[in-house]
Specification:
The protein is of the alpha/beta class. It has 8 helices and 4 strands, in the order E-H-E-H-H-H-E-H-E-H-H-H. The chain has one domain: Rossmann fold, CATH 3.40.50.300. Strands 2-3-1-4 form a 4-stranded parallel sheet, sandwiched between helices. Helix 4 runs parallel beside helix 5. The model has no long low-confidence stretch (mean pLDDT about 95). Bound molecules: adenosine-5'-diphosphate. The site of adenosine-5'-diphosphate has 18 residues, from helix 2 and helix 3.
């Protein structure tokens, strides 16, 4: 099973992907999570993208394209995978199409989550409150200002192109 989950920040891509992981025993490939790990561990990519992510903007296509291609080549993706948060631009969608063709694999479905904007902001705030209550670390891009930017990036760069991304 090879799936893509698309949707604005706070739509629940990660939560739904986790359910699919359990159901189909295939890995969730979250570009956001991969980038956060790169930032946290201070890799070259992490240093390159930290400021961009903290502003709530999309990182350059090249960075994520390479990350996804390398990840799909790993052994645990042979039976399938769930792409969470990729592709997010037309350029990424085009690279993904070529990449899958070259690797000889086909997608089964693209799932788009749609959620009302006010609910998205509420969810982000609840996520922050829950994380703090549990003594965890809040994502540095989970604050009102950066979240608004992430929503705007989604609206401008991802949502209008969904017909093409399919
Ligand atoms: P959300 O969908 O909640 O905004 P993600 O965890 O998917 O969160 O992404 C967090 C950040 O990582 C994004 O704001 C962006 O900076 C970066 N990012 C993740 N995936 C991509 C991608 N496919 N292209 C460009 N930037 C990405």
């Amino acid at each position: 099973m090879r799936l893509i989950i698309l949707g604005p920040p706070g739509a629940g891509k990660g939560t739904q992907a986790q359910r699919l992981v359990e159901r189909y025993s295939i890995p969730q490939l979250s570009t956001g999570e991969m980038l956060r790990v790169a930032v946290a561990t201070g890799t070259e990519i992490g240093r390159e993208v930290k400021a961009i992510m903290d502003r709530g903007e999309l990182v350059p296509d090249d960075v994520v394209n390479h990350m996804v291609s390398d990840r799909i080549d790993q052994e645990d993706c042979r039976r399938g995978f769930i792409l969470d948060g990729f592709p997010r631009t037309v350029a990424q969608a085009e690279v993904l199409t070529a990449m899958l063709e070259q690797k000889g694999v086909k997608l089964d479905a693209v799932i788009e989550l749609k959620v009302d904007q006010a609910a998205l902001i509420e969810r982000m705030e609840k996520r922050v409150a829950d994380t703090l209550a549990a003594g965890g670390t809040v994502r540095s891009d989970d604050n009102r200002e950066t979240f608004a930017r992430r929503l705007d990036e989604y609206r401008r760069k991802t949502a209008p192109h969904r017909e093409i991304a399919r």
